[in-house]
Structure formats: C-alpha cells, structure tokens
Amino acid sequence: MSIKMDGKLVAHQIKSTVKEYIERNNAHLDLTIVQVGNNSASNTYIKNKVKACEEVGIQSTVLRYENIDEYDRCVDIPDTLKHITGTGAMLQLPLPKGWDENYFVNLIPSRQDADCLTEASLGKFYSSSNPYIAPCTAQGIIDLLDFYNIDIEGKRALVIGRSNIVGRPIAHLLETRNATVTLAHSKTRRSDLLRLFAISDIVITAVGKPDFITEEDAYQYNKDYRHDFYSYFETKSNRVIIDVGINRDENGKLCGDLSEDFKAKYSEYYSPVPGGVGPLTVANLLYNTVKLHHQEHKNDQDNV
Ligand code: NAP
Hints:
The protein has 304 residues and is an alpha/beta fold. It is built from eleven helices and eleven strands. The strands form three sheets. A six-stranded parallel sheet has the order 1-11-8-7-5-6, sandwiched between helices. Strands 3-2-4 form a three-stranded parallel sheet, sandwiched between helices. Strand 5 (156-160), helix 7 (167-176) and strand 6 form a beta-alpha-beta unit. Helix 1 runs parallel beside helix 11 (277-296), helix 6 packs across helix 7 and helix 6 (136-147) packs across helix 11 (277-296). It binds NADP nicotinamide-adenine-dinucleotide phosphate. Residues 137, 160-163, 165-167, 184-188, 206-208, 244-247, 277-278, 281 line the site of NADP nicotinamide-adenine-dinucleotide phosphate. NADP nicotinamide-adenine-dinucleotide phosphate (NAP) binds next to helix 11.
C-alpha cells in the first residue's frame, strides 16, 4: 500500500518551531508582501500567507498596487522594493504580462529576501553544499522527505521542470544530499522521460500540466520496452513521488501534475495535491523569515 504524505502535518511542525522561536526570544518579526495587479490565484496565496503569519505571530503587511501606471512601474514600485523595511519581504509572482520579474525581484535587499529568489541569495544558495536559506518550495520538499525518513543519499532522483523557483533549487538540494539527479524539461525526449521515471527512486514533478504522465503512458512504455527489465515501469516499487504541480482539472478542481490514482499505484510514498507541498511552501516562507531575523540578531538571540 502506498503512503500518502501529509504536507499539512509537516507544515504544522515547522510553524510550531517558528512560533517557539518568536516566543522564546520575545522577538518582533514582520513580513512585507508586495502584490502588483489583481491576479485571483495570487490573492488566494497571499490570503494563506497572511493567515499563516497570524498563526505564528509574525506581523504581515500587504502592499497592493492595483490600477498601475507608468510612474508606479518605473518609480514607485522599484522604490518600495529597494527601501523595504522589516525582517522579511517578498514580491508575489506572477507580475503583470510584460514585466521583467527578474529585475523587480532583484530590487529586494538580500538580507530581507524571505523567498530566497534574488541573485545574491541564490548565489549563496548554489555555492553552498549546506545552504542556510533556500527557496521555500524546494526546502519544503526536503522537509517532507526527511519527515518520512526517506533516504536521499545515493538515490536516483528525477526532477521534471527547471524553473528558478522549484526545479533548479530542488535539484541542487537533492544533489547536496548526495542523490544522483537528472533535471528534465520540455526539450527532454518523451521516451527518455518515461525511462527515467521508471528507473528513479525519487521523482519530483514541477511542470504545471495535469495528467502529465498517465496509466496509458506506463502501459505503452512497458509494451514498447518489454525486453528491458531494468527499466520496467513497476507498480509496486519503492519509488517516492512528489507532485509540486498546482493545476485545475476540466471541472475546475485543484489537481497536481499526476493523478492521485497514478501516484498511489507507482510509488511507496507520494504527495497529494492539495495537502502536499503547498502548505510547506508557506511554512518555509515563515521559517525563512525567522532565519533572516536570526542572521540579523545572531548575537542576542538563541538558535533557530
Ligand atoms: P514553470 O516556470 O512554468 O516551469 C515549468 C517547467 O516544466 C519548465 O521547466 C518546463 O520546461 C517544464 N515542462 C513543460 N512542459 C514539459 C514537458 N512536456 N516535459 C518536461 N518538462 C516540461 O513552472 P513553475 O513555476 O516551476 O511551477 C510548476 C508547477 O508547480 C505549477 O503548476 C505551479 O503552480 C506549481 N507550483 C507549486 C508550488 C507549491 O507550493 N506547491 C510552488 C510553486 C509552483 P522548459 O524549461 O523547457 O520550458
């Protein structure tokens, strides 16, 4: 029987650590969230972040820019991001069409970069074999694997998707934990992708397409490669599948990149959507805020 991993439970533990840190140190932490435009998914994500801040005792401020004009884009918003005050800050993505996200994200001072997405923060992240701070979703995946005592060292890991917020950083974290990592993307040959899936111990999907690999794919693959026992698409394998995708199916229901049935069939452990990686992304935003606070006040606070 496959085990459904409980992201909410792990997120709850991380939030408790954050809360304890704040109470123990009698610390004041605040997080500023900058939103540009009125994307409905972003509104939901921000609502969840604000709620999570309230739960642990971090003060949150949302700076919302709606009906933006050229002055806002060229002067006001850059100025806000550059001179942000407080413990941590983040810019909610996506920005409106045509905006250079990289430029705006990089205006946030790295000492306040709670998402760990600026070039300065990522430079430290990628040059370290034991990063102090990591992009939230990638760290959340590691937390989930650790909670379920899943060995990473020496394992074959396949990461599908190479975005800066998920695919690349999780590939780096897995590699720092001594996994053998393959990073697949839209130009990866489909036959290679399925073969890699079949032979991997840990599969992370961060694609953004529902039913990205299906039962039919597995069936067809096994038929085509029936003489290759090494890479047979086994059902009862001890594979771990972490599904990062957040999509809507044809009925408007939240779903991951893989169906829940598919994950349960081809893994020993799998993360559901919703209730898998999502809550951990938010929890790690709070935890990163604690880390930023700790870094700033190293001499007068205890350990994180
Ligand atoms: P993204 O920037 O759009 O990246 C998608 C990646 O998938 C790209 O690297 C792309 O390859 C790859 N890809 C697309 N089609 C493919 C194919 N046919 N075969 C193999 N690879 C393919 O997306 P993202 O920001 O990383 O997000 C990915 C998903 O995770 C989305 O559903 C998003 O909503 C979700 N997400 C969830 C959380 C969470 O907390 N749970 C956090 C962040 C994101 P190329 O690079 O070649 O284009």
